[in-house]
Write a structure and sequence with these properties.
Layout (H helix, E strand, L loop, with lengths): L1 E6 L3 E6 L2 E10 L2 E8 L2 H10 L1 H14 L20 H12 L4
Antiparallel strand pairs: 1-2, 2-3, 3-4
Amino acid sequence: MLVIDHEPHSWFLFEHEEKLFLDANCSHSFLGYSFMIELHEDECSKYRQYGRGYLTELAQSIHNSVPILKDSKSIYKGRDVTQHYLGLTQSALQAWKSPNK
């Protein structure tokens, strides 16, 4: 797992086994959480076409849809892989932040 890019206070883009993962930083009043999805092929295509701006829009869409709510109708509900990759993302972030990269 590697950090490929990030937008402060908004998202991180990771790559793992030739797949891309977007970790959106969501915050609603007193509740803050990360919500990471594996990018589908159409999302990868849009990222290649539109770049970082697309990822910012996608992260905002995830945030606005509040996919963690029980009654949420979010299209991202069921795509959360945050816990599955938690150890790998923590290690990747630690390596990325390291001054001895």
